Amino acid sequence: MAQYFVILPDGSKFGPADTSTLNQWIVEGRVHTTTILEEVPSGVRCAANQLPALRFAQVVAYLNEPAPDMIDDGTLVPAAVQGGFNLGALLIAPVWALKHGVKLGYFAGAMALLSLTRIGIIGMVGLVGISLYLAVNGNAMAWESGKYATVEECLRMQQRWAYWGLGGILAVIVVFSVLTSFVL
Predict the structure, then answer these.
(1) Is 16 buried (19+), middle (13-18) or exposed (0-12) by CB count in 10 A?
(2) Rounded to the nearest 5°, which phi and psi values hold at 168?
(3) pLDDT digit string (tens) for 115-167?
């Protein structure tokens, strides 16, 4: 079965995906008639509406309505991704946000650095506030980053971020405990 990369407006690409997956992305609103596709391995590019195997006609009825599993708030974020609590975004907010292209990550990083100074309380308050915001909205932000092809992949990767966050926090606690044991 033919495989295609989806070429984003900024020139980056994701995939490859077969026509079955591309049809699913059409339903999800991720692939449109004017989306540029690149065939693997030939590298030939064409508009998505040039591929007969793609079923745009079958989703015309959905163009003015969200797909059944979408929340109608204008963002086209699947309901399974909306809500929830993103532990990875909470525990390692600056790294998580920067990796997902969330500009708030720069501010979170600055707050983390500020927390290491004499006026650290300001940095800590800012970092906690940003972290809580990312924890509540993180799953939807991760989906909107465009890095994930399916809802399942997005949720699975957010679970991994949670494990990394827990591991990072435990590592900091261990290092801090070891360092303070030398002082006492």
Answers:
(1) middle
(2) -65, -45
(3) 888 878 888 888 888 888 988 988 888 888 888 888 888 889 999 999 999 99
pLDDT reading at 72 higher than 50: no
Cβ–Cβ < 8 Å for 4, 17:
yes
Could you tell me if 14 and 6 are in contact, meaning their C-beta atoms sit under 8 angstroms apart?
yes
- Local structure of 131: helix, strand or coil: helix
The CA distance from 6 to 122, in Å, is 43
The pair of three-digit structure tokens given for residue 170, joined into one six-digit string: 């435990």
pTM, 2 dp = 0.55
Single out the residue of 52, 39, 68, 28 nearest to residue 151, CA to CA. 28
Distance between CA atoms of residues 96 and 10, nearest Å:
22
CB 79 within 8 A of CB 70: yes
Q: Which is nearest to 35 in space by CA: 2, 63, 57, 4? A: 4
